[in-house]
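Issue 218. Parser rejects a valid record. Input:
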Amino acid sequence: MHKHQRLVLAIAVLASFVAFLDSSVINVALPAIMRELGGGLSTQQWVVDAYLITLGSLILLAGSLSDLFGRIIVLRWGLAGFGVASLLCAIAPTAEVLIVARGLQGVAGALLVPSSLAIILSNFRGPAQAKAIGSWTAWTSAAFIAGPLLGGLFVDLLSWRYVFAINVLPIAVTLWLLFVLKQKDTREEGVAIDYLGAVLGILGLGLPVFALIEQGHYGWASPVIYLPMVLGVLALAAFFWRERVAEQPMVPLGLFRVRNFAVGNVATTLIYGALSIGGFLLTVFLQQVGGYKATVAGLSILPVTIISILLSSYVGGLAGRFGPRLFMTVGPIVGGLGYLYFLMMDASPNYWVEVLPGVVLFGLGLTTTVAPLTSAILGAIDERQAGIGSAINNAVSRVAGLIAIAMLGLVVGPQLDLVGFHRGMLVTACLLFAGGIISGIGIHNLPRATAGSTVGSSEPVAQPK
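Output the parser choked on:
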């Protein structure tokens, strides 16, 4: 890896770090936010989902923007917008203002992740790309998992409002590194934004999620619930019709004829839905039911961060040499066993006996899964479509997360208790097992020489071994 590549990797890691950190740090602050600003489980869900709805629904549009204006400039927009929205979150006087500010964070976050991965894909290919994605995964996963620890420290020692100040330093450093990089922006010729598709996609995602979150308050028979659900489903159907007939669609449906891209995104849906449910429930349960301090709840999953930092780059390199199939099969199953272990927890869990072994199993499973999963999906497509390919995969993972959180009330009930927690752990484990099984059946190890050479035709370009 030469100097330019190291700088590109550092920028990609830091830009994604901001978005991933903020999506995870919020969980440990939710009880403190509820105590100060009021609200129950629904308010907590909306503080999480306001970010995920805008992030998930706009991330496809962000992929088009990066192709139209260039990935570097879109990264700059995203970083600046994220910093401003974070300050709004920190000073929010009410829960409603906080929810709106979180939505604005999601808008800016949508600009960060696909562009950051795309610059990796355009500067690395082959096994080097898999190893670079492994390094990216290690540090971004560390952000996703270390968020509760950092958030817990701020909540216990200062205030939940300071959790949003965490973003300031990585944003400033990333903007400076972009200046140092001086890489010429890449813009695709003749690219246009599918505005109708963007609107339909936003409505198709946002309205059903609203209905899922609020159905516990109003009931399915209320027009406040069934009208958004019906309109959202119709908008989503219209979105897919639009993408099929549009001259320049936001989502080129031909990508899903590439086997690893299609199967990998199905696995992503299951795995990231599981991670959202499991991470949310574990950090909130340890505080609200188990009586853990916010800092201790954050520290409880620190082993996942350590495992990810130590092993993700190595696992990414192995996946580049031997193919991703085995890793994508075994990893989710090991992670699912970790969540099954949490069924041993009672209302006063002993960390060393009831929590730590499950955390270690989950950490090993997550680290084994994420880098090979990303490499399998994005390594199967042409680097010229790296931006939209990354955007689609990130949209799938974010939408899976927000739908999982939106449906949480159906799994655990209106208040989180021990029985609801156990149901949530069982659902999480089953989703991870399903992700591993589907990967084992559907993912093929592509020949190195042809993987990712072309994409978008009616058939995959590389024949499986």
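Fixed in the parser; the record now loads. The CA atoms of residues 41 and 414 lie 7 Å apart.
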